[in-house]
Each structure stands twice: as C-alpha cells, then as structure tokens.
Design goal:
By secondary structure, the protein is mainly α. Helices cover 47% and strands 8% of the residues. The chain has a two-stranded parallel sheet.
C-alpha cells in the first residue's frame, strides 16, 4: 500500500495539532465582539506554524457585517 490506509480523521487531527502553535487573542474584546470561540485542547502549542487572530479582525467583521446588512435590507422590504 501507499500509506493512505494509515490516514484517518484522528491521525490528520494529530498531525495538524503537531504543526501548529496557537495563541489565543490577547485582547478579550476580540473574542466578545467577533463572537470567537475556541478550544485550546483542539490546537497545538509547539509547532512551526504560529496561529492567532489579528487585532484588526473585529474591524473587518464589522465592516463586512455592515455591508452585508446594507445589501440584504433592500431585498427584505420588497
């Protein structure tokens, strides 16, 4: 075989965690305003790929949400 039989969701999840170093948002308001939830047990903490949420994430979410509402609102009144 080519090793494909060794891959499963569990082995993929373990490999993903091994490659990641996750850092939760430093600013708690990012979690609250953007409704971000995460489980630290689902993330790695010693891998070469560093992951987190950027500080501008909330501003981006608010901008997208505002534009989406502006696009949706006219169609709701028709």
């Amino acid at each position: 075989m080519d090793g494909a039989d060794d891959w499963s969701w569990d082995s993929m999840f373990a490999a993903t965690k091994k490659s990641e170093t996750f850092r939760p948002p430093v600013d708690a308001s990012i979690e609250q305003e953007a409704a971000i939830t995460f489980d630290l047990a689902s993330h790695g903490n010693q891998g070469p790929i560093h992951m987190s949420y950027p500080g501008l994430y909330v501003l981006y979410i608010h901008a997208v949400e505002g534009r989406a509402r502006a696009l949706i609102r006219p169609s709701l009144s028709a």
